[in-house]
Amino acid sequence: MKNYFDEIKAKLNQQIEIEDIEIVDNSHKHVGHKFYTPEKFHLHLKIKSLYLSSLSRVSAQKIIMKILSNDLKTKIHALEINIEK
Questions:
Q1: What's the pTM value of the predicted model, to 2 decimals?
Q2: Which positions ≥6 away from 8 have C-beta within 8 Å?
């Protein structure tokens, strides 16, 4: 799991200028939900980025979603994104 989170960080850092990123795994909070599967993560990204914070919230989130599009199909079930300056 740790390696996978490092992989996510690397993907984002390759395409966006990010000062800091924290990935919180909230998957344990969703055990028992209708579409829960242990193969997919429920993640919360806490990103500190001057670049992303200069964009609209929707535009910034679209960029992140595009970068992680394959992961969202295969490894991520839910993604919460917080962007700070």
A1: 0.86
A2: 23, 43, 45, 68, 71
Q: Which domain holds residue 60?
A: 2-84
When divided into structural domains, the chain yields a total of 1
Radius of gyration of the chain from its Cα atoms, rounded to whole angstroms: 13
Backbone angles phi, psi at 66, to 5 degrees: -65, -45
Sequence-separated (6 or more) residues with CB below 8 Å from residue 16: 49, 51, 52, 63, 64, 67
Helices (H) and strands (E) in the chain, counts: 4, 3
Q: How far is CA 65 from CA 11, 28, 29, 45, 70, in A?
A: 11, 22, 22, 11, 9
Contact 21, 48 (CB under 8 A): yes
pLDDT digits (tens, 9 = 90+) for 60-82: 999 999 999 999 999 998 999 99
Size of the chain, expressed as the number of residues it contains: 85
28 CB contacts (<8 Å, ≥6 apart)?
A: none
